Amino acid sequence: MSAHTWESFVANLMALGIDAAQSLMRIALIFAIGFTIVKVLRAGLSRLERFLIRATEKTERAPGAAGQRIRTLGNVVWTISSGFLWFIVMLVVLSQFGINIGPILAGAGVVGLAAGFGAQHLVRDLVSGFFLLLENQIRVGDIAIINGTGGLVESVTFRTISLRDQAGVVHVFPNGGITTLANATMDWSAYVIDVSVSFREDTDRVCAIMRRVAGELKQEPDYGRLMLEPLEIFGVDNFTDNTVTIKARFKTLPSHQYTVGREYRRRLNKAFVAEGVEMVLTPRPAAAPNAQAVAKT
């Protein structure tokens, strides 16, 4: 090898080394910038979460519900934004190696389009789940009726909602397939009671006994803390040839209406027996299949 050839080889090798070093420095700089942006984004989302939690918790009856919902949404936004950011970083790094990223972008677009057509229902479920959580329509522990099926909400994700009915059967509903949703425990719950007595009974006396029993129940700490308001008696709701029906309602903390209502029924029965009030059993209308809500245990 001649001296000139050797010098050219060394010069080319040094040039390649310099180019490689510069490329590595640029790649390191790209990663450093990406890492810094990710840290700033994470810190910004955390501050936004704390601000939203403080702003919304004042209006929430259920402690911690607002924080749980906002943190869930924040995690989704963080996952999507950070994933998109690192995808851009990797494309820039590949371009530093001389790789043409045009076909990659085109291929990603084709793959995304195909995945979009193939995952229409999945995307619909995710979008519906996002707005369910954003609008605070339903939470874990609520008693809800979804598409005619009632139960206790055991899980809420961006794709599905799970209910457990009175028989212990778990029903799973894709969020995108929910057409009707009734929440029995949003902010407060209610226990409606129909009291049927003989038409010979004095309805004013019966209402007085009902209020007295409700007042005694509210004086007890275990039940009083669950009752938001005193018993609300609507009055005579119906009557037949031999019965009079009085309708009343308790307002309670979410999901505690059955705890208060069932204990009230038990005590009211004892009070009626002690006062000689003649109660009349009336046939209950058949409920729609799986349409009853489940008491929280």
Describe this structure in words.
With 297 residues, this protein is of the alpha+beta class. It has 3 domains: 3-118, Helix Hairpins, CATH 1.10.287; 138-183, Roll (SH3 type barrels), CATH 2.30.30.60; 189-275, Alpha-Beta Plaits, CATH 3.30.70. The protein is built from 7 helices and 8 strands. The strands form 2 sheets. It has a 5-stranded antiparallel β-sheet with strand order 4-3-2-1-5. A 3-stranded antiparallel β-sheet has the order 6-8-7, covered by helices on one side. It is elongated and about 120 Å long. Mean pLDDT is 79; it is low at 283-297.
What's the SSE blueprint?
Elements: H1 3-56, H2 65-96, H3 102-118, H4 120-134, E1 143-146, E2 149-156, E3 160-164, E4 170-174, E5 181-183, E6 189-198, H5 203-219, H6 221-224, E7 232-239, E8 243-252, H7 257-275
Antiparallel strand pairs: 1-2, 1-5, 2-3, 3-4, 6-8, 7-8
Helix pairs in contact: 1-2, 5-7
Low-confidence stretches: 283-297
CATH topology of the largest domain: Helix Hairpins
CATH top level assignment of the largest domain:
Mainly Alpha
Instruction: Count up the helices.
Output: 7
Kindly name the structural category.
alpha+beta
Intertermini distance: 89 Å
Mean pLDDT: 79
Radius of gyration: 33 Å
Coarse shape: elongated
Strand order of the largest sheet: 4-3-2-1-5
- Tell me the strand percentage band: 15-25%
Largest sheet: 5 strands, antiparallel
Counting DSSP E segments of at least 2 residues, the number of strands comes to 8
